[in-house]
Amino acid sequence: MAKRYYWLKLKADWFSDKRIKKLRSIAGGDTHTIIYLKMMLLSLKDEGKLYFEGVEDSFASEIALALDEDAENVKLTLAFLQRHGLIEIGDDDEYQLTEVPTIIGSETASTIRSRECRERKKQLALGQEALQCNTNETGCNNLKQICRVERELEIEREKDIEKEGEKDTPAPAAYGKFCNVFFADAELDALKTELPGKWEYYIDRLSVHIASSGRKYNSHAATIYKWAQEDAEKTAIAGNALKKGIPDYSYSEEDSL
Fold it and tell me: Model-level pTM greater than 0.70?
């Protein structure tokens, strides 16, 4: 498997976010902010997920050990992140940093090597131009050579981009009232087509449900399809029951009993 490198793509106004400004304003805020950034970096390969493995007595102590940070500072940071919707606790001791899936950058080692190779070729061509451009007669030929080399490099670059696009799937975008529902573009287009007039309702419904319950789902699109199917079935059952005078006792998956 090709080696892959990951990085965070923070927006230019990331530190202007009210939640980050609030985090920095509390006692020891800069330390808590650094802990948050280190947690995001630690979670990159798992798309923002962190797991409690039971090495320490608590998740906070375990993350503190991994980050080489004070456990009490980590505990306070986690409390702040959870209170402001920046981290969610799922099943099986899974913790999801909600912002990370939308700000992940990655690149394979082969793409990096190709880019470095192109840069070396370009520098070599420029060096040859500097050595040979001593007379006006050779200058024109050298300029043509440089243009040809740059065009070849551009073609190679375009091929690499196409290959990278074939291998990589774009990170899913965040939707919903609390920006915690994720779809690929194709999934969202399918929802719009198959649930016209209802897809926005179901996205917000799922967003509120996840934020209030802390539940995790393998596929947000599949969950919405399931709810839509259940709603359609309940509507049909309720219609039949109404005709027969039978009370409707059905309830949805996210209802609390």
Answer: no
